[in-house]
Every structure is written in structure tokens, then in C-alpha cells.
Specification:
With about 325 residues, the protein is an alpha+beta fold. The chain has seven helices and 16 strands.
Length: about 325
């Protein structure tokens, strides 16, 4: 009887160990599915050492020299402002990493906000598949409404900090922010197009970094610092450093909460809407950016691109919408 009891006890203990092993294995599998939210390697890959490091460590050290206080206030006209003489803040160490493709995404902060994302974008990172659904991600401040004068009506998009067409990240919460439709299309798209086209045109790498700038504990960023520089072609192909404003003409935004309303004095009518909208600046099966916005917004993007002084003489104008 005592031996039988001991046998059962040993069997029970063995069962516990087996159960623990199953749980740990499941945890590893789940973690492995979450880690691509950091990057494909579970951290920031260091091509020089061949080691994988913590993403936040390599990212937070990347924007030294940028002072948010130096960004000029939005003037009501320009979608962006050149920063640092249009020269990125990349260090020699950053550029040395460039010839090997990598991607890294900062961990969310205590408020759930995104941080700096950067990558050395090569054709090997660009996706072959169409972008998947991203509406399972709810970035901070995502309190959406419909306004009849906005393309596709919804004020906010889930904006990729690094475009899907560059690194193939779908519903990565570390790469999606609350951004206006105006920011996504008229602001970011021309620069994304310039960087992506440079990669494809010469099969080179472009060092690319996007930093959302939040004031205090605001849940919606004021704008984005966007930096890019060709690596193999010594910055001749594409090079820029700009701050793109997270604004929407005709709409007043409370950046602390994401609440928004029709700007006083505007004659346009607005209607309440659900937050089930789509981020429609997508990539096709070849990874090429599809300009699915309306002719009105396309015109704004074209005007923005025309003012960009060719971004070091080689900027490619975005295509017109089909």
C-alpha cells in the first residue's frame, strides 16, 4: 500500500513535470510568435557581431542630436519641415550596419506608445505577399470619427512607422501609431516612396528610421521624424531628414487623448463614425506601394513632393492614383 502510494506520488510528480514542460514549450511558441513584433530575429540583429541584442537598446541610442523643441510649429500649409539641414542623424556606427539588412522596433512605453523604429531596408526584407489585416491593433489615442471632407472619411489611420512594403510587418503593435489620413498620405507616403524606390531601383540598402514625437504624456504624437540615407551609394540616391506633422486640415485634435472635433469656423459637416477603418496605403504582391487614395489627396501628395527639392537630387515623384 505504501509502495503503491509512493508510485502514485512519483507518477503524480512526473505528470507535473510533463505538464510544466508542455506549458514552457507553449510559452516558447507563443513568445516566438510575439517576438517578430520586435523584429524577425526577436531583437535588434547586429550584423557585425552576429548577435541579437535588445531592440530598445539599439534603437534608443539612434536619434542622438535631435531636439524636438527645435521643430518649427505647424504653419497651416506645409506637411513637413526639414530638420538638421535635411541631413539624417545617423552615426558612422549606424551606417556601418547598413550593408546588411535588419529591422528593429522599440518596446512600447508605460503608456503603450510606440518608440523609434529603424531598419536597413534591402530587397530581401520587402514582402511578396499582400498586406494582412491590422485592425486587431489599437494604438494609443485611437478615437476615430468620420468627417465628410476627408478621403475615405475616417480621420485616423493605423499608420505604419516603417511601411509594410519595406519590411513586411503587418499587425505589429510596435510599428503602428494613431496618425491622421493627411499624415499617412500627404505627409509620409512621398518619403516612403522615395526610400522604397531607391532600394528597388539599385538593389541597394537604405538606412531608414522613424521616430514618433509625443509631448509629455500625450497619447497621440505631434508628428514623426523621418530619416533615410542610401548606404552603398554613399547617400547619393536618397537622403532626407524631415519632421512630418500629424495634423488634419479642418479638424482640431486633442493630442492628450485622441479626441477630435470640427475646427471652429469650418463649414464642412462631420458625422460620428466607428473606428473600424482601414489603413489603405498598402503594398501589392510585389511590395510596391499602392496609391489607393483619392485624386484630392493625391494632389496634396504631389504638391508636397514637388516642394522637396528632389531630396538630394534623386527623389522620385509618387505615381498618380489609379
Amino acid at each position: 500500500m505504501q509502495g503503491e502510494h509512493r508510485g502514485r506520488k512519483r507518477h503524480s510528480s512526473a505528470g507535473k513535470y510533463i505538464l510544466l514542460a508542455v506549458v514552457l514549450t507553449a510559452a516558447v511558441i507563443v513568445t516566438d510568435r510575439i517576438l517578430p513584433g520586435t523584429n524577425r530575429y526577436g531583437g535588434a540583429y547586429d550584423p557585425q557581431s552576429g548577435e541579437t541584442a535588445d531592440a530598445s537598446g539599439i534603437v534608443t541610442a539612434a536619434s542622438e542630436g535631435f531636439q524636438a523643441a527645435e521643430v518649427p510649429a505647424y504653419n497651416g500649409r506645409d506637411t513637413y519641415a526639414e530638420i538638421n539641414g535635411n541631413v539624417p542623424f545617423f552615426t558612422a556606427e549606424d551606417l556601418n550596419k547598413g550593408p546588411v539588412s535588419f529591422e528593429a522596433y522599440s518596446s512600447l512605453d508605460s503608456l503603450g506608445r510606440c518608440g523609434t523604429c529603424w531598419a536597413s531596408v534591402g530587397t530581401d526584407l520587402m514582402p511578396d505577399d499582400e498586406r494582412g489585416e491590422i485592425d486587431t491593433v489599437w494604438p494609443t489615442g485611437y478615437r476615430n470619427r468620420k468627417y465628410s471632407f476627408i478621403d475615405r472619411n475616417f480621420l485616423y489611420n493605423r499608420c505604419h512607422l516603417i511601411a509594410y512594403g519595406m519590411t513586411g510587418e503587418n499587425a505589429n503593435p510596435r510599428n503602428l501609431i494613431t496618425g491622421t489620413r493627411y499624415l499617412n498620405v500627404a505627409g509620409m507616403l512621398p518619403f516612403e516612396t522615395a526610400a522604397s524606390d531607391a532600394v528597388r531601383r539599385n538593389e541597394e540598402h537604405v538606412l531608414y528610421r522613424v521616430t514618433p514625437v509625443f509631448e509629455g504624456r500625450n497619447l497621440v504624437c505631434t508628428g514623426l521624424l523621418m530619416e533615410a540615407q542610401s548606404v552603398e551609394y554613399n547617400s547619393v540616391d536618397v537622403k532626407f531628414c524631415v519632421f512630418v506633422y500629424n495634423v488634419q486640415p479642418g479638424v482640431t485634435i486633442d493630442y492628450a487623448t485622441g479626441e477630435n472635433s470640427l475646427t471652429a469656423g469650418s463649414s464642412a459637416a462631420d458625422t460620428e463614425g466607428s473606428a473600424a477603418e482601414e489603413d489603405t496605403v498598402e503594398a501589392d504582391a510585389a511590395g510596391t506601394v499602392k496609391h489607393t487614395h483619392s485624386a484630392i489627396v493625391t494632389e496634396a501628395a504631389m504638391q508636397t513632393a514637388a516642394k522637396q527639392k528632389d531630396l538630394n537630387g534623386s527623389f522620385v515623384m509618387p505615381e498618380t492614383a489609379q
